[in-house]
Amino acid sequence: MAKYKCGDIVEIREDLCVGNYGAANVIEKMLQYKGNVAKIIHVDDDDITYNIDTDGGVFYWTDDMFSELLGRPMAKSVGEVSNPLEVDDINKPHYTVKYIIPNCDTLFSMDVNLAEYNASKHYYLFTNSDGKPFYLFESNVESIVRIS
Asked: With CB atoms counted within 10 Å of each terminal CB, which end of the chain scores lower, N or C?
């Protein structure tokens, strides 16, 4: 049985190396994704390999290529999140998110904590350095990179 499900948010291992990781091999082109956050977009029928959004679903990934599960799709919509600060974001990893504001050609960057990801509504819930929550829709997020 697969460890991860479609829509799960995972982190690709920082120490990923070329070689065998169970049912799939890491090749040189996959190393560019080390440390990145990815969403599982397909679980293979054998429940052993995955495809992720970060590489456009090109490569096969296995459990051993991911360092941790960062989030599962949640059932609540944006309007139903009553108190986002209830999420334990103190121990969450620290990230830099690059995003684009609609109707603006400028790419912005901000250091954040990733609190939640909602796959059905396609948004991320982050907290900034002051602990204030904010949402970014998936279509506005250019990249999410772990920095600590």
From this structure: N
CATH at 142: 2.30.30
CA distance 103 to 6: 31
Does the residue 117 lie in any domain? Answer: yes
- Which DSSP symbol is given to 36? B
Domain holding 63, by residue range, is 9-70
- DSSP, res 130: T
Structure tokens at 41: 């977009």
The residue with greater pLDDT, 61 or 73, is: 61
> Model's pTM, two decimal places?
0.54
Average per-residue pLDDT in the chain?
76
- Give which of 47, 119, 14, 46 is closest to 77, Cα–Cα: 119
* Residues 69-88 pLDDT 10s: 776 654 333 333 333 333 34
Is residue 3 situated within a structural domain? no
Q: Cα–Cα–Cα angle for 62, 45, 10, nearest 5°?
A: 35
* Strand blocks (E) in 72-106: 94-100
